[in-house]
Design goal:
The chain is an alpha/beta fold and 446 residues long. It contains ten helices and 15 strands. Helix 5 packs parallel to helix 6. GO terms for molecular function: arylsulfatase activity.
Length: 446
C-alpha cells in the first residue's frame, strides 16, 4: 500500500473513531441535563430571604432565585413528611401508593413502607443511563426491603426515619440511624454537613455522566441543634423531641443558614466543574413550618393542617443559560417534578404508568402556562380541592370553608355561605377524586 493510500485510510479511521466518541460523549448542548433536587424539612413559605424572611440569612438560595424561577404558589403534596416524599418520587398522589400518613418510628408502621413495586423517578432515570444518588432523609420505610437502593437509587448516605439527633444520629426511638446503602455506618459529624459532603462527593464521582442527585435535608426539622451543640439522644436515656437548647429560635436560624451554606458549596462545585450550564437545580420543602418554630409568613395554618401555611412552601429552580429569571404564580406541586425530569432528560414513560403530576418543562423553558387543573389534598380530618382561584377545605369537625385565594391568600374570609353552587361543584369533584384514590387500596393514615 502506498503512503498516500495509507494516510487516506488512517484519516478515515480517525474520522470514524471521532464520530463514535462524539456519540458516546455528546456535547453539553445535546447531553441530557444533570438534575439536583434539594428538599428542606419543615421549612415554611416565608422561611428564607427571597421569600420575605429578614431574620435568616440565605444568600445562596437568594442567588438561585435571583438567577432562576421563584414559585409563589408552590405546594407540597401533603402537610407532613412521608406522603409528600412518596408523591415526589412517584409523580402520583400519595394515596395511590397507600402513603397518606406518616410512617412512625414506633408502632406497627415501622414494619411497612412504600412498595418497591412503585416506579420512581430514580428508577426511570437510571434506566436512561443516569447515576442516581440520595443523600439525606428517606422516611419511606425503615426495613431494608424499603430502602432507597430498592427504589432505583445507586447510592444512599443518610437516615430512614423522620428525624435523628444531628450529632449522635439516633432517632426518636433511641435507635441508631445512619446508613450507607443498606449498611449501618458509624460516621461522626453534623448531619447537614455530612449530607453536603456526600452530595459533593457524588457530583465529583459522576461529573462525566448524567446524574440525578436527591438531597432531602433534615434541616430545619426538630431536634433543634446547631453545629457546635452536643448530641443528646442515646439508647436507654430519656430525651425530649425538640432538644435541650434554650434559644430554639436562634438555633433554628442557624440550622437554615448552615443548610444554605451547603447549597452554596454545591452551586460553587457545579461552576468549578463547568457543569452548571447543564444542571437543573430545584429547591423545595416537604411541608410548612411548625406552629411554634419556623416561618409561614401571613399564611394561615401550619404543619399537620391543610390551610395554606401547612402546604404552601418555597419553590426555586435554577438553570443558568436555560431558564429566564422570573416569578411564577401558577400553582404547581411536588409530584410535578417526576414528569418534568423525565421530559427534560428525554426519558420515556412506561406505557402502563399514568402520572398525576404535570410536565413543567414548557413552563420552565418557554414560560408557557400550564393547563387549568384541580389539585387535591387529604390528611386526617381535613381534605381540600384547589381549582383556579377557589379553595374548598372540608374539615370533619368544622364543616366546609371556601376561600378565594387570588383575593384572600391568607384565608381570612369564609365565602361558603355566599357561593353555595361553587361549594357544591367543588365538593362533587373532591368526592370523585376520593373515590378514585380509595378504590382497592390500604392506606397509612397516621
Amino acid at each position: 500500500m502506498s503512503k498516500q493510500h495509507l494516510s487516506t485510510c488512517l484519516l478515515l479511521i480517525t474520522t470514524l473513531l471521532t464520530a463514535c466518541q462524539d456519540q458516546d460523549h455528546p456535547s453539553d448542548n445535546t447531553a441530557p441535563p444533570n438534575i439536583i433536587l434539594i428538599m428542606a424539612d419543615d421549612l415554611g413559605h416565608a422561611g428564607i430571604g427571597c421569600f420575605g424572611n429578614e431574620e435568616i440569612q440565605t444568600p445562596n438560595l437568594d442567588r438561585m432565585a435571583a438567577g432562576g424561577i421563584r414559585f409563589t404558589n408552590f405546594y407540597a403534596n401533603s402537610t407532613v413528611c412521608t406522603p409528600t416524599r412518596a408523591a415526589l418520587l412517584t409523580g402520583r398522589y400519595q394515596q395511590r401508593s397507600g402513603m397518606e400518613g406518616v410512617i412512625y418510628v414506633k408502632g406497627p408502621t415501622r414494619e411497612v413502607g412504600m412498595s418497591p413495586a412503585e416506579i420512581t423517578v430514580a428508577e426511570l432515570l437510571g434506566e436512561r443511563g443516569y447515576a442516581t444518588g440520595i443523600m439525606g432523609k428517606w422516611h419511606l420505610g425503615y426495613q431494608p426491603s424499603f430502602f432507597p437502593t430498592e427504589q432505583g437509587f445507586d447510592e444512599f448516605y443518610g437516615y430512614v426515619s423522620g428525624n435523628i439527633d444531628f450529632h449522635s444520629h439516633y432517632d426518636n426511638a433511641g435507635i441508631y440511624d445512619w446508613w450507607h446503602d443498606q449498611d449501618s455506618l458509624v460516621e461522626e459529624g453534623y448531619v447537614t454537613d455530612l449530607i453536603t459532603r456526600h452530595a459533593l462527593d457524588f457530583i465529583e464521582k459522576n461529573k462525566d455522566q448524567p446524574f440525578f442527585l436527591y438531597i432531602p435535608h433534615e434541616a430545619p426539622h426538630a431536634p433543634y441543634q446547631g453545629r457546635n451543640d452536643l448530641g443528646y439522644r442515646f439508647p436507654g436515656e430519656e430525651f425530649s423531641y425538640y432538644g435541650p437548647v434554650e434559644d430554639k429560635d436562634a438555633t433554628y436560624r442557624e440550622m437554615v443558614e448552615v443548610m444554605d451554606e451547603g447549597i452554596g458549596k454545591i452551586i460553587d462545585r457545579l461552576q468549578q466543574l463547568q457543569l452548571d450550564k447543564n444542571t437543573v437545580v430545584v429547591f423545595i420543602s416537604d411541608n410548612g413550618a411548625e406552629r411554634d418554630y419556623g416561618h409561614n409568613g401571613s399564611l394561615r395554618g401550619w404543619k399537620t393542617n391543610l390551610f395554606e401555611g401547612g402546604i404552601r412552601v418555597p419553590g426555586i429552580v435554577w438553570w443558568p443559560g436555560r431558564i429566564a429569571n422570573r416569578t411564577v404564580e401558577q400553582a404547581v406541586m411536588s409530584f410535578d417534578w417526576m414528569p418534568t425530569f423525565l421530559s427534560l432528560s428525554g426519558t420515556p414513560l412506561p406505557e402502563d404508568l399514568e402520572l398525576d403530576g404535570q410536565d413543567l418543562s414548557a413552563l420552565l423553558l418557554e414560560n408557557e402556562p400550564l393547563p387549568q387543573r384541580p389539585l387535591f389534598w387529604r390528611y386526617r380530618k381535613q381534605k381540600v380541592i384547589r381549582d383556579g382561584e377557589w379553595k374548598l377545605l372540608v374539615d370533619q369537625d368544622n364543616g366546609s370553608m371556601l376561600f378565594n385565594l387570588q383575593e384572600d391568600p391568607n384565608e381570612t374570609t369564609d365565602l361558603a355561605p355566599d357561593h353555595p353552587e361553587t361549594v357544591r361543584d367543588l365538593s362533587e369533584k373532591l368526592a370523585a377524586w376520593e373515590r378514585e384514590m380509595d378504590t382497592g387500596r390500604e392506606m397509612i393514615t397516621n
